[in-house]
Amino acid sequence: MNTAIKIENLKKYCNSLTQYSRYKTREVYIGDIPLGGKNPIRIQSMTTTDTMNTLATVEQTIRMAEAGCEYVRITAPSINEAKNLENIKKELRKRGYNVPLIADIHFTPNAAELSARIVEKVRINPGNYVDKKKFELIEYTDQEYQEELERIREKFVPLVRICKEYGTAMRIGTNHGSLSDRIMSRYGDTPLGMVESALEFLRICEDEGFHNIVLSMKASNPQVMVQAYRLLVNKMESEGMNYPLHLGVTEAGGGEDGRIKSASGIGTLLEDGLGDTIRVSLTEDPEFEAPVAISLANRYKEREKHQPIKPIEENPIDPFNYNKRKTIEISRIGGANVPRVVADYSDRKIHSQKDLTDIGFTYDEDSDKWYLADTAADIIYLGKNLLPFDCPNGLKAIYDFDFWQSLDNLYNSYPIFDLDNYLIANKKSDELNFVTINSDIFSNDSITKIKNDKTAVLIVETENLHGMAEQRRIFFELLNQEIQNPVIIKRDYRNISFDKLQLYSSTDLGALLIDGFGDGVWLKVDNLISEKESEGLYVKSFIRKTETKEQIINRLLFNILQAARQRISKTEYIACPSCGRTLFDLQETTEMIRKRTEHLKGVKIAIMGCIVNGPGEMADADYGYVGSGIDKITLYREKNIVRRNIPTKNAVDELINLIKEDGKWVEP
Ligand code: SF4
After folding, report:
1. Ligand 1 mean position to 165 CA, how many Å?
2. Rounded Cα–Cα distance for residues 159 and 449 (Å)
3. 629 Cα–ligand 1 center, Å
C-alpha cells in the first residue's frame, strides 16, 4: 500500500468526492419501513404536544404523516409518558395510520425499557442515558474510565436485550451540547468526543449481537455536525461497521435561519452520499419540517447521472477539521477578510441611488452621504448596465471587460474576464480583475499563467448537476497547484422557487464554506418563480410582496455566511424545536425575544423549552433563556445560571438587563 492510499484511508468518509453515489449502509427495519441499504432517504420528525395528551399527539402525528413523515418521534420523559405511548399507538392504528413510532429518551432507562416493548424504535442520548451531567471536569485514569464503561454496560444491556427480543430498533443519538462529563474530560467538546460517545454504546450493542441501530451526530453548528458525521463514518469503516445515519442540525431555530442552517449541514452530507434518514428541526409546528426534508432528499434522486468530474488521487484537505484555504489579499478580498457578497444587477437597470437600497446602501440626498447596513453587499455585478452615479465607497462595481474597457470613469469599477480573454487583454485594471474559471482548468494550463497574480480574483462557475463536487474539485486543483488567488463561488439557478433556491444554495455554497473554501459568494438567478407554483400544504413563504429579487438574494447570501459561521451580521439564535417537555410557547417566545434583540450583531441567544435538556444543548450560546417550571424561566450566561426561576412576564426584560450588564447591548 503506498502512502497516498494510506492517507486516503485515514481521511475516507464517503464513496467518492467526485462521483456521486449513496454510501451503502446496513438495512434496519423500523416497523414495516426499512431504512438504510438501498431504501430511499426516509423523512421523519417529532411531535411537540404533551405525550400525556393522547388525542392531541395522535392528531399531530396524523398531520405529520400526511405532510410526508415516514416515522414520528414522541418524547417519553418518564414512565407515565412511556405507558401512554400504548394508547397513542392504539388510537393511530384504529384510525388507519401505521406510521412507525419512536420514543425519545433522555435520562430515564426505565421509560426506555417500557417504550421498547411498545413502539418500533427507541432513541437514546448516550450523553445522558446513564450519566447525570454536572459540568465537572474530572481526570479519569484508564482504570477509572474502564470502570465507568462497565457501569454503562450494566445499565444499558437490559434495554438492548429488550430491543432484541421485541424487534425494536434503536437510535444512538449524540448531541454536541450534551456530551457526558466523562467524554468531555477525555475528548473535549469535539467531533471526536461526539463519535466516541456513540461508539461506547455501539460496541456494547455489537457485543450483544444487536445490530438494529441507527446513529446520529447532531450539533447546532453545521460545521461541527458535518465533521462529526464524517468522522463517524471513518471510524465505523475502520471497525468494520456500516450503520445507517440519521441526519439533523439540532436547535436550528425557525424560519429562514432554521432552513438555511439545516440545509447547510444536512445538504453538505447528502452531497457526498451520506444520510439514510433526515429530520429537519425547526421551531415551528412539526408538519412544516417534512416538506423541507423532502426537498433536500429529492434533489439526489437522479444525481448519479451527473457529468463526469475528474477523479482525485488524494484529498488535499483534512475533512474532520476546519482549515480555511490560504489566499492572498487583493483589494480587501481574500486573505483574512470575511467572505464578500456579490449582488447581481446584470438584468436590472439602475435608475437612481434608490435602487441600491435593496442591497444595503441608503443614500441621503441632503447630506449627499451613503449609509451602509450590516448586510450591505460588497461587490455589484452590472454586466453592461452603466451605474448612472459614482459607485459608493464600500462597493465595487464589476462590468464585462469589453464594456469596462470603453468606460471613461473607472472609479471603483473593475472588469470581469474569462480566462482566455484575461491572458490576451491589452487593457486591465492595475488593482483588481475578476477572472471566471470552470472545470476547463483541468485540461488547460492557462490557470498557471495567472498563478498568484496580485490583481486576479477568480470566480468559480459550474454547470454540472453535481456542481458542489465539481467546484470543490476546482478548489482541490488550486490547492495542489499552490494557487492562492482569492476565489468567489458563483452558482446559477434557473426557473426556481424561493423555497428551493434557499435550500439548494445553502447546500451548494454552505458545503464549500464549511470546508474553508471561498472568499466570496455570488448567486445568479434567472426567473425566480412564484412559490405558489411549488407550494405544498406546509411550504412557508418568507418573501414579502414588496421585496425585489436582489433584496431576497442579498439576505439569503448573508444568512448562508452566518450559518457557516463565516461572516456574522446579526444575532444568532439557537432555539430548540420544542417537544412534549416544553414549558412555554417556544415559537411565540422566540419571536418576542427576536423582536427585541435582532440588532445585537454577533450575540448568541439560546431559547430552550426545558431545564432537563436545554442547558446541555445550548451549545456555545452567550445567553440561555430556559423554561424551568410552569411560568418560570431560568437565565444563563454561557453555562452558568444567573437568574433562577423568574416569572415569565419579566424574563425577556431580565435577559436584556443581563446583556446590558455585560456591555453587549446597543440601542436598536
Ligand atoms: S430542550 Fe426543547 S426539544 Fe429538547 S427536550 Fe427540552 S423542550 Fe424538548
Report:
1. 30
2. 64
3. 13
Q: How far apart are the CA of 187 and the centre of ligand 1, in A?
A: 25
Cβ of residue 586 lying under 6 Å from some atom of ligand 1: no
Q: How far does the centroid of ligand 1 lie from the alpha carbon of residue 332, in Å?
A: 43
Find out whether the beta carbon of 608 lies less than 6 Å from any atom of ligand 1: yes
pLDDT at residue 357 greater than cutoff 50: yes
Residue in this structure with the C-alpha cell 455589484, named with its chain if needed: 380
Ligand 1 centroid to 193 CA: how many Å? 22
Residue 405 has phi, psi (to 5 degrees) of -65, -25
Dist. CA 382–CA 388, nearest whole Å: 11
Which atom of ligand 1 lies closest to the CA of 610? Answer: 6
* Closest approach atom of ligand 1 to CA 251: 3
User: What pLDDT is stored for residue 611 in this prediction?
Assistant: 87
Q: Is 589 in the pocket of ligand 1 (CB under 6 A)?
A: no
**DSSP letters for 129-161:** SSPPP-----PPPHHHHHHHHHHHHHHHHHHHH
The cell for 12 is 475516507
**Pocket lining: 610 vs ligand 1, CB cutoff 6 Å:** yes
Decide: 232 and 217 in contact? Cβ < 8 Å: yes
**Rounded mean pLDDT, 24-32:** 97
Q: What digits encode the pLDDT tens for the residues 484-507?
A: 999 999 999 999 999 999 999 999
Residue-level pLDDT at 182: 84
Question: Which pTM does this prediction carry?
Answer: 0.92
How far is it, in rounded angstroms, from Cα 377 to Cα 396? 9
pLDDT value for 136: 60
425-434 mean pLDDT: 96
pLDDT in tens, 295-345: 999 999 999 999 999 999 889 999 999 999 999 999 999 999 999 999 999
**486 Cβ closer than 6 Å to some ligand 1 atom:** no
Does the beta carbon of 617 lie inside 6 Å of ligand 1?
yes
Looking only at the bridges linking them, the beta strands covering 623-629 and 632-637 are: antiparallel
Provide φ and ψ at 657, rounded to 5°.
-60, -40
Kindly state the percentage of the chain with pLDDT values over 70: 96
DSSP state of 296: H
Q: Give yes or no for residue 609 having a pLDDT over 60.
A: yes
Tell me which of 50, 128, 281, 578 to substitute to probe ligand 1's pocket, judged by most ligand atoms within 8 Å of the beta carbon: 578
What one-letter code names the amino acid at 521?
V
pLDDT at 3: 47
C-alpha cell at 463: 454547470
Tell me the CA–centroid distance for residue 358 and ligand 1, in Å.
38
* The predicted structure's pLDDT at residue 134: 59
Q: Residue ranges of the alpha helices (H) in 529-608?
A: 549-563, 586-597
Beta strands in 498-603 (DSSP E): 520-529, 572-575
Q: Which atom of ligand 1 is nearest to the CA of 627?
A: 7
Give 84-88's long-range contacts (Cβ < 8 A, gap of 24+): 84/51, 84/52, 84/54, 85/51, 85/115, 85/118, 85/119, 86/118, 87/54, 88/51, 88/54, 88/57, 88/58, 88/61
3-state secondary structure of 502: helix
Distance 609 CA to ligand 1 centre (A): 5
Probe target for ligand 1 pocket from 608, 630, 632, 634, with the most ligand atoms within 8 Å of CB: 608
Tell me what pLDDT residue 6 has.
53
